[in-house]
Each structure stands twice: as C-alpha cells, then as structure tokens.
Amino acid sequence: MMDIVSYALELGAADVISLPPRALEANWPGTVSDPEALLPGARAMHLIVVPYQAFEWRADEPSVNAFYPAYQRGRAVAQALVEALRAGGIPAASAPNLPLKPLALAAGRFSMGRNCLVGAREYGTRFTLQCVLSGLEPTEEAAPPARGRLSRECARCRACLRACPNGALNGDGTMQPERCLRNFSYTEPIPESMRPMLGNSLYGCDICQRVCPRNAHQRAVEPPAALREALSLAALLQGEYKPLAPFIGANYARRNRVMGRAALVAGNLRQKSLLPLLRQVAENEAPPAREHAAWAVQRILRDEGREAHPEG
Fold first, then answer.
1. Taking the model in full, what pTM does it have?
2. Which residues, in sequence order, are bridge partners of residue 183?
3. What is the C-alpha separation between 260 and 288, in angstroms, rounded?
C-alpha cells in the first residue's frame, strides 16, 4: 500500500491530512461541494499543506505575491500524487475546486482568522492547500464543526481590519469579495479609484497577512531571480508574458491580463521611461489593457507636470 504522506513530503509538502469524504459548504463561485461528484466512490480526502515565505520586494519594482508560485508547487505535488496512486491501481483525482478552507477547519488543526484566512500555529497563514481524492482508507476523523470560532490570536486583534486599504474584511472571518484587491477582475478594467491601491503588485495583495500576528515569526526571502526577470515591465508591455507562467499559472499568465496589470504598476511607479510603450498599449490593445495604459499615461504626466510646476 502506498505511503501517501511520505511521498508527499518527498515532493515538498509539509503535511498531508487524510479525512473521510464529506460534503462541504461551497459558497465561492466555481467550487464543488460534494467530492462524490469529482471521484465517485472516493474513500478519502487528502488535504495537502504547502507552506511558503513572503517575498521581499523593493518598493520601486513590480512584485508578485509569493502565494502564486507556492500554489503552482502545490498543484504539482497533488498531480504527482494522483499519478502515483493511479499507477498503483488506486482511483485518484485532484480536487482543487473543493472548498478547502472548510476542509482545513474540519481537520481540526487550523483556525479561521479575521482576515478570512485559515491559519496554523506552525505555518501562520502563509501556506497553500490542495486536495487529492482517492480510494485509500482515511487515517483521521473529522473534527467537530467550529463554525463562528476565530483564532485565539484574533481575540483582541484588529490589525488586518485597520490595514485593509479597501475595507474588504468584515472582522468575523468573512469578507466582501468585491472589495478585496486580490479578487479584482483580470478581464475587466479595475475601478479608477482603486487602481492606486494595487501599488507595485502585479498579482495579489499581502497586506492582511503582512500585519497578522500569526505570521510574526516568519521572515521574508528574496524572490527567485528568474521571477524578477520575468517581471520586467518593458517586456510585459510588449506582450512577453510567457516567462511568468511557471510562477503564476497559465490562467493568470495571459497576454492581455498581464499587460493590463503591468500598465497599472507602471503608472503607480511613475515609470516615465515606459510612456512610449504605454501609449502603444493604449492605442492598440483590447480592454482592460487599453484603459489601464491610458490611465497610467495620465498618471505619469500629471506627476511630471507637478514636478515641472511645483507650488509656491
């Protein structure tokens, strides 16, 4: 019988928790509540935990949240497990579209935070979750429901509520998705008033995790050199997005999506040298890249005008 935990650890996971299959509350678009719909006859739900460390970016360079590369690693671990199980004659399927936060809470080792992220003492909130369904027997029982219970660290803490730039957090472990910077559409223009909030971030927002006491023991690390190189705004504005795909995934690494986000970052960083490229994008590309590039041009020119004509 395959030792799924040992193999997952060899692949880079920190833990695997095997629970009996159960229907989960699915409130997020695209999620599936019943594992039976993904693997009929599944006997176990294997929750895979892949921790990561935040990246330490300079304020004057484009950035990507470390979650995205970690998520790609987690997907690779899950797929390798599925292939190994199937090779051993065991039914298996990757199930990233199950609601994994409720599954983590059912494991009994995680707790919900005010920032709407599940956390664990050893990882803080910086980890990604994957799930593999299989015909193996589960090794653990689900914990009693913990609905409404927040992490003990959250009892007297409001740091994430104060720090969220757009007021997306409700404070009870739920959020307003339409206000979360990370959830903004990649296929439609971002509201103009919210574009400056993205700062130098091409993908993701780490503010509520950065201020969370559950992550106080962690240290940021240098991002991979290849990722820094792939984040060249000049290259991205010319449609050279494919080097980003290994870090953020094929769904996010699409020409117009990346170009539109690169335009916003260029505007927020006041990159005057990119004005010719931004004008080309504004004139020739489809939405949302076109609108974002036009906004970036105006933002840079306004800033340039203030420098040329300072008050007083």
1. 0.91
2. none
3. 6
